[in-house]
Specification:
It holds the Pfam family PTS_EIIC. The chain is mainly α and 72 residues long. It has one domain. It is built from four helices and no strands. Helix 1 runs antiparallel to helix 2, helix 1 packs across helix 3 and helix 1 packs across helix 4. The longest helix has 21 residues. The chain is elongated. The protein starts with a helix and ends with a helix.
Length: 72
């Protein structure tokens, strides 16, 4: 679930970024590996340098894990 949280945070950053910005380029390059399960480009290149998206991605992953744990 942590990977899904990182992907969600990266997509939110992508939608909020200015068109043709460096942030959009970074997210575009890291989102495909993130969707395939390799989260390091998203973590170290996109969300961790900006602390707030990293924390919200961790909270989203925790909420998803709690939900899966409760219904499984």
């Amino acid at each position: 679930m942590a990977g899904a949280g990182q992907v969600g945070a990266a997509l939110a950053l992508y939608w909020r970024a200015q068109p043709h910005s460096a942030l959009r380029s970074q997210v575009r390059g890291a989102i495909i590996p993130g969707l395939l399960g390799v989260g390091e480009p998203l973590i170290y290149g996109v969300t961790l340098p900006r602390m707030k998206p990293f924390v919200t991605a961790c909270l989203g992953g925790a909420a998803g894990g709690l939900f899966i744990g409760l219904i499984a």
